Amino acid sequence: MSETISRRSPASSQSGLTLVETLVALFLVSVVVVSLTALFTQSMRTNYRSRAATDATTIARSKVEELRALPFDAAQLDTGGALDPNAPQTGYWDGLDADGMPVSGNAVFTRLWQVVLPDVTNPDLKQITVFVRFDSPLVAQPITVQTTTLVSRV
Description:
- By secondary structure, this protein is α+β, with helices and mostly antiparallel strands.
- Helices cover about 35% and strands about 25% of the residues.
Protein backbone atom coordinates (compact mmCIF):
# COMPACT_ATOMS: atom_id res chain seq x y z
CA MET A 1 0.00 0.00 0.00
CA SER A 2 1.34 3.15 -0.91
CA GLU A 3 0.04 6.37 0.38
CA THR A 4 0.07 9.44 -1.65
CA ILE A 5 0.44 12.61 0.25
CA SER A 6 -0.54 15.68 -1.54
CA ARG A 7 1.00 18.82 -0.41
CA ARG A 8 -0.55 22.11 -1.00
CA SER A 9 1.37 25.26 -0.84
CA PRO A 10 0.43 27.47 2.11
CA ALA A 11 -0.53 30.36 -0.18
CA SER A 12 -3.08 28.35 -2.13
CA SER A 13 -4.92 27.15 0.96
CA GLN A 14 -5.41 30.63 2.41
CA SER A 15 -8.06 32.97 1.16
CA GLY A 16 -7.86 36.74 1.59
CA LEU A 17 -7.18 40.02 -0.09
CA THR A 18 -4.00 40.95 -1.74
CA LEU A 19 -2.38 44.29 -1.15
CA VAL A 20 -3.53 45.55 -4.56
CA GLU A 21 -7.16 44.62 -3.83
CA THR A 22 -6.97 46.39 -0.48
CA LEU A 23 -5.54 49.54 -2.07
CA VAL A 24 -8.24 49.59 -4.76
CA ALA A 25 -10.97 49.20 -2.13
CA LEU A 26 -9.40 51.97 -0.02
CA PHE A 27 -9.27 54.25 -3.06
CA LEU A 28 -12.94 53.63 -3.87
CA VAL A 29 -14.00 54.31 -0.29
CA SER A 30 -11.98 57.55 -0.22
CA VAL A 31 -13.64 58.74 -3.47
CA VAL A 32 -17.07 58.13 -1.95
CA VAL A 33 -16.15 59.90 1.31
CA VAL A 34 -14.77 62.96 -0.53
CA SER A 35 -17.90 63.14 -2.69
CA LEU A 36 -20.18 62.92 0.34
CA THR A 37 -18.17 65.59 2.14
CA ALA A 38 -18.59 67.99 -0.78
CA LEU A 39 -22.31 67.23 -0.92
CA PHE A 40 -22.66 67.76 2.83
CA THR A 41 -20.81 71.09 2.66
CA GLN A 42 -23.00 72.34 -0.19
CA SER A 43 -26.10 71.24 1.70
CA MET A 44 -24.99 73.21 4.77
CA ARG A 45 -24.45 76.34 2.64
CA THR A 46 -27.86 76.00 1.06
CA ASN A 47 -29.54 75.54 4.45
CA TYR A 48 -27.70 78.59 5.82
CA ARG A 49 -28.82 80.77 2.89
CA SER A 50 -32.40 79.50 3.18
CA ARG A 51 -32.55 80.25 6.88
CA ALA A 52 -31.09 83.73 6.33
CA ALA A 53 -33.67 84.43 3.59
CA THR A 54 -36.47 83.25 5.89
CA ASP A 55 -35.17 85.42 8.73
CA ALA A 56 -34.87 88.44 6.41
CA THR A 57 -38.45 87.93 5.23
CA THR A 58 -39.69 87.69 8.82
CA ILE A 59 -37.80 90.86 9.75
CA ALA A 60 -39.24 92.73 6.76
CA ARG A 61 -42.81 91.62 7.50
CA SER A 62 -42.37 92.54 11.14
CA LYS A 63 -41.52 96.14 10.19
CA VAL A 64 -44.42 96.29 7.74
CA GLU A 65 -46.84 95.18 10.45
CA GLU A 66 -45.33 97.64 12.93
CA LEU A 67 -45.81 100.53 10.49
CA ARG A 68 -49.30 99.42 9.44
CA ALA A 69 -50.39 99.43 13.10
CA LEU A 70 -49.59 103.16 13.42
CA PRO A 71 -52.18 105.86 12.86
CA PHE A 72 -52.14 107.16 9.30
CA ASP A 73 -50.81 110.57 10.39
CA ALA A 74 -48.06 109.22 12.70
CA ALA A 75 -44.64 110.85 12.29
CA GLN A 76 -43.09 107.44 11.39
CA LEU A 77 -45.37 107.36 8.34
CA ASP A 78 -44.23 110.74 6.99
CA THR A 79 -43.05 110.38 3.42
CA GLY A 80 -39.33 109.79 3.14
CA GLY A 81 -36.69 107.16 3.45
CA ALA A 82 -34.60 105.33 0.92
CA LEU A 83 -33.90 101.72 0.04
CA ASP A 84 -30.16 102.04 -0.59
CA PRO A 85 -28.21 100.26 2.18
CA ASN A 86 -25.13 102.31 1.28
CA ALA A 87 -26.95 105.60 1.99
CA PRO A 88 -29.58 104.99 4.68
CA GLN A 89 -31.67 107.97 5.78
CA THR A 90 -31.93 108.78 9.46
CA GLY A 91 -35.17 107.57 10.97
CA TYR A 92 -35.82 105.13 8.14
CA TRP A 93 -33.40 102.30 8.88
CA ASP A 94 -32.04 100.10 11.63
CA GLY A 95 -29.43 97.38 12.08
CA LEU A 96 -30.30 94.03 13.59
CA ASP A 97 -28.28 91.14 14.97
CA ALA A 98 -28.73 87.49 14.00
CA ASP A 99 -31.69 87.21 16.40
CA GLY A 100 -33.47 90.23 14.89
CA MET A 101 -32.66 92.50 17.84
CA PRO A 102 -31.61 96.13 17.18
CA VAL A 103 -27.89 96.84 17.41
CA SER A 104 -25.85 99.98 16.86
CA GLY A 105 -22.86 98.32 15.20
CA ASN A 106 -21.93 95.06 13.48
CA ALA A 107 -25.42 94.47 12.17
CA VAL A 108 -26.09 91.20 10.40
CA PHE A 109 -29.34 92.50 8.92
CA THR A 110 -29.82 96.04 7.60
CA ARG A 111 -33.47 97.06 7.42
CA LEU A 112 -34.55 100.15 5.50
CA TRP A 113 -38.00 101.48 4.72
CA GLN A 114 -39.52 104.10 2.54
CA VAL A 115 -42.91 105.80 2.68
CA VAL A 116 -44.22 107.43 -0.50
CA LEU A 117 -47.48 108.71 -1.92
CA PRO A 118 -48.06 106.36 -4.87
CA ASP A 119 -50.74 108.64 -6.28
CA VAL A 120 -50.14 112.34 -5.64
CA THR A 121 -53.80 113.04 -6.37
CA ASN A 122 -54.81 110.81 -3.44
CA PRO A 123 -53.21 111.97 -0.16
CA ASP A 124 -55.19 109.30 1.74
CA LEU A 125 -52.99 106.49 0.40
CA LYS A 126 -49.38 105.71 1.33
CA GLN A 127 -47.06 103.01 0.07
CA ILE A 128 -44.61 101.43 2.51
CA THR A 129 -41.66 99.47 1.17
CA VAL A 130 -39.32 97.59 3.49
CA PHE A 131 -35.95 96.33 2.30
CA VAL A 132 -33.78 93.91 4.31
CA ARG A 133 -30.22 92.97 3.47
CA PHE A 134 -28.33 90.09 5.09
CA ASP A 135 -24.54 90.29 5.02
CA SER A 136 -22.27 87.48 6.14
CA PRO A 137 -18.82 86.26 5.16
CA LEU A 138 -20.37 82.80 4.82
CA VAL A 139 -22.41 83.79 1.75
CA ALA A 140 -20.90 84.94 -1.51
CA GLN A 141 -23.55 87.58 -2.19
CA PRO A 142 -25.79 89.47 0.23
CA ILE A 143 -29.32 88.14 0.56
CA THR A 144 -31.98 90.80 0.02
CA VAL A 145 -35.73 90.81 0.59
CA GLN A 146 -38.17 93.56 -0.26
CA THR A 147 -41.86 93.81 0.54
CA THR A 148 -44.40 96.54 -0.21
CA THR A 149 -47.81 97.36 1.18
CA LEU A 150 -50.38 100.14 0.99
CA VAL A 151 -52.05 101.92 3.89
CA SER A 152 -55.02 104.20 3.65
CA ARG A 153 -56.65 106.72 5.91
CA VAL A 154 -59.97 104.92 5.70
